[in-house]
Specification:
- The chain is of the alpha/beta class and 408 residues long.
- The chain contains ten helices and 21 strands.
- The strands form four sheets. An eight-stranded parallel β-barrel has the order 1-2-3-4-5-6-7-12, surrounded by six helices.
- Strand 2, helix 2 and strand 3 form a beta-alpha-beta unit.
- The structure holds iron/sulfur cluster.
- Iron/sulfur cluster (SF4) binds next to helix 7.
Length: 408
């Protein structure tokens, strides 16, 4: 069956390693120059070099976004930066500007160039153009339906990458000037202020039509494409992309882990039942703090696919600890606390090689062997005894109870 790439985001080196360890085939990151989401771009050239070496050691790849649409003053330094990325061992650059794309091909031919979703490519004829320009892959617009993705992929002369998960714009990606208008911060140069999610008073002919206690705002539900993965694999899509370079390590681990298991199951069994789809949707929901929907996969989103009056995402507190080490002889695990929890509670562990597994946390001790009543100091190092082997790099979360979650 067609081998497909699972492509995950990373905002820093820690998240890059987590994404690869939890099953991504490649990660995409932003450097400190020429990238959108400049606030999410924490990678120095040294970090990129280390990340690319880590990926290479796992026979995986790092892609770097160079996806701003440059103004004249943005161009100096481009050549040095591209050559430095090539030297650092990066596999591909994700580029929006045709000028930058062709320039990269001229000066650094060993780098693949992937045409960014910012370009709103929606058909195979446009992809033919990019092929003639010497490009290597095209990221389709998020506004394509499943049928359009299937048809485009069938006729595409280049590998096609599609988004399967994460945040969506309320407007067409790459075409929004709301932030420019409201704040003079250009969304297409990395400065989006997410003005769509602000709270607005709304007037019609000078008459206020908003509820003063519930001001108007707008955003889309996040994309979640679990049930479409088999069709995307069958359509010979080259890469499945998760959005979210600003997301936490826990979110990335959870989402990547679930999609990895899903892809591997479908590759092995060539089938995915409704029961298994529900299982994977539940796995992903353990890290979701916003409602999700099918995006454009089933056609133009309807009103119920949008969120009005909701301006941001809360933080889930289900992620309670990281596993730092486990001694199989003594059955002692060393943990680092992330969110508060108590001894004698049910928990769930999942890790790079561990499917989600419930177990009971019994006594918890600090490093002086003092029993603790409550764990409420993030980053504290503690010890527990566990007959269940706990894999280093695994994460521990509270047992998920959807009814008690605040999903916004
Ligand atoms: S303002 Fe909203 S819709 Fe526009 S680019 Fe920013 S996030 Fe997307």
């Amino acid at each position: 069956m067609n081998k497909i790439e699972l492509l995950a985001p990373a905002g820093d080196l820690k998240r890059l390693k987590i994404a690869l360890l939890y099953g991504a085939d490649a990660v995409y990151i932003g450097g400190q120059q020429f990238s959108l989401r400049s606030r999410a771009s924490n990678f120095t050239l040294q970090d990129i070099r280390e990340g690319a070496a880590f990926a290479k050691s796992m026979e995986k790849h790092v892609h770097v976004t160079l996806n701003l649409l440059p103004h004249e003053e943005d161009l100096p330094g481009l050549k040095e930066y591209v050559l430095a990325l090539e030297d650092a061992g990066v596999h591909a650059l994700i580029v929006a500007s045709p000028a930058i794309a062709t320039y990269v091909k001229q000066i650094a031919p060993s780098l693949e160039v992937h045409i960014s979703t910012q370009h709103s490519t929606t058909n195979s004829s446009a992809i033919q153009f990019w092929k003639e320009m010497g490009m290597d892959r095209v990221v389709l617009a998020r506004e394509c339906t499943l049928e359009q993705i299937q048809a485009t992929s069938a006729n595409s002369p280049l590998p096609v990458e599609v988004f399967i998960h994460g945040g969506m714009c309320i407007s067409f990606s790459g075409r929004c000037v709301l932030s420019n208008h409201m704040t003079n911060r250009d969304a297409n140069r990395g400065g989006c202020a997410q003005s769509c999610r602000w709270k607005y008073e709304v007037y019609a002919n000078d008459q206020a039509i908003h509820d003063p206690n519930d001001l108007f705002s707008m955003s889309s539900k996040d994309l979640q494409a679990v049930r479409f993965i088999p069709q995307l694999i069958d359509a010979k899509v080259a890469s499945l992309k998760i959005e979210g370079r600003m997301k936490s390590a826990y979110y990335i681990a959870t989402v990547v882990h679930a999609y990895r298991m899903l892809i591997d199951e479908y590759m092995e069994k060539h089938a995915l039942s409704e029961e298994r789809i529900a299982f994977y949707e539940e796995e992903i929901a353990k890290a979701e703090n916003r409602p999700t929907g099918p995006g454009f996969y089933l056609g133009m989103p309807k009103a119920h696919d949008q969120l009005y009056g909701v301006n941001g995402a809360g933080v889930t507190q289900e992620y309670i600890a990281d596993v730092l080490a486990y001694d199989a002889h003594t059955q002692i695990a060393t943990l680092q606390v992330r969110n508060h929890f108590y001894p004698h509670m049910e928990a769930e562990v999942f890790g790079p090689h561990t499917a989600s597994t419930r177990f009971r946390i019994e006594e918890v001790y600090d490093l002086e062997d003092t029993a603790l009543d409550v764990l409420n100091q993030p980053m504290q190092i503690v010890k527990i005894k566990s007959a269940l082997p706990l894999e280093p790099q695994a994460m521990i979360r509270k047992v998920y109870d959807r009814t008690q979650r605040n999903v916004y």
